[in-house]
Amino acid sequence: MSAITAASATAASATDTRSPLPVLGRDVLVPLVTGGEVTYAALDYAASAPALQRVWDDVAAYAPYYGSVHRGAGYLSQLSTDLFENSRKDVAAFLGCRPDDQVVFTRSTTDSLNLLAAVLPHGTRVFVFETEHHASLLPWQQREGVEVGFLSAPRSPREAVETLDRALSAWRAEGPAEGGSAGPALVCVTGASNVTGELWPVRELTEVAHAHGARIVLDAAQLAPHHPVDIAASDVDWVAFSGHKLYAPFGAGVLAGRADWLREARPYLAGGGASRKVAVRVREGVGGVDVEWHTTEARHEAGSPNVIGAYAIASACKALTEAGFEGLVARERELIARVREGLTEVPEVRVLSLFGEDAPRVGVISFVVEGWNSSHFAAALSAEYGIGVRDGLFCAHPLVRTLLGGEPGDQGECGAPEAAPGERSLNAIRVSFGAGTPDEHVERFIGAVKELVRDGAKWTYRTEDGRCVPDRG
Ligand SMILES: Cc1ncc(COP(=O)(O)O)c(C=O)c1O
Hints:
Layout: H1 2-6, E1 29-31, E2 37-39, E3 41-42, H2 53-62, H3 75-95, E4 102-106, H4 109-119, E5 125-129, H5 134-137, E6 147-151, H6 157-173, E7 185-190, H7 202-211, E8 215-219, H8 231-234, E9 238-242, E10 253-257, H9 260-264, E11 275-283, E12 286-293, H10 307-323, H11 325-344, E13 349-351, E14 364-369, H12 374-385, E15 387-388, E16 390-392, H13 397-404, E17 428-432, H14 439-455, E18 461-464, E19 467-470
Parallel strand pairs: 3-15, 5-6, 5-7, 7-8, 8-9
Antiparallel strand pairs: 1-2, 4-10, 9-10, 11-12, 13-14, 14-17, 16-17, 18-19
Helix pairs in contact: 2-10, 3-10, 6-7, 11-14, 12-14
């Protein structure tokens, strides 16, 4: 990590007036393998976005007042408790929650979806497209008493809706479960793909789900940073997202939505904070504990809550709302158009898409370059141009397999394949951006792609610990 220690970092600058929301790290210098330094071009927002300057400032202003939440009698404890509970209200407002919805603070989207999986009523049937991120694909089958129906990759939003409709019709036709109905069902769907950036037809899928008596959870990890999410208007039952993708990297996430399954299930974690009343009883030498659990969000937030994480998310929600999604979306559309136009000018580049060229999307674009191993390409973008993108299968192996039209590289979760530079591409490169991305980053990226394809890498690279790195001899 000598590259990082050698880099000189300064605070954020807001020099690019076209970026509606300044982020931290815009003046960080990173070394180039070819010599010299360049400001880092963070184009991996889909993995983790830089912190908003506003979020950082809010957290810094609160830090001296930090105190224990929910338990302390002191002034700062009370202040922190208010801040934590007000953060919940701010997130509820940002998501357009219904009056009875709960907003549970979790660690991340993955944690939120695992929490929802844990509270599903026994016998629930879950429907999920195989194209989902692993966080939406995998939690359900961990639950005993829950069956999962995997839906095949649709090639258009319309096909997605039809596929779900067919699957839910078949489920209902299976006949009544105990109690006379088909039993509970849940559909889990992403709002925007973390691989293609394409928007999924959430409203239509919700209508279909509800028409069949199923509920729906929206994985908004990639949607919430780019588009408004309105629970009440879209009528989804739950929404999950992560702070670190929403410019608030302080280790918190959110599950928001219907209270009933959350209230009725066993607490996600057993412990302090989740329990209202606890008494140990011993009868004839046999012991047990009687517990009265909270029925509010606290039921699933046992332990000391991440007050700074929650506050950071609330701060980001307010900053995005105040900046206005209309302007953010318009600005992002310009960047998307510029990147796609630049990539189109390189015949060796193939952009990955499930729904086709015209599908509406957020600033997440994956591609492969003919004749290049994607890890090699990404390593050269970093080492020779100071551009941070991502390579791999993006924790969506089945989707990337579909898009690459064959078996991807043999690799672990989120890692890079064991492939030497120059071999056939077994994985993809992803460029992603958002609020705070200056034009220069996008222009540098397009210039770098063109130059690498035309002239090749200036340096040699080797595979080390499964990653492609510059060979420093
Ligand atoms: C669509 C989608 N869902 C879920 C996740 C998981 O988010 P986290 O790693 O913050 O739990 C990601 C992360 O990349 C994602 O892109």
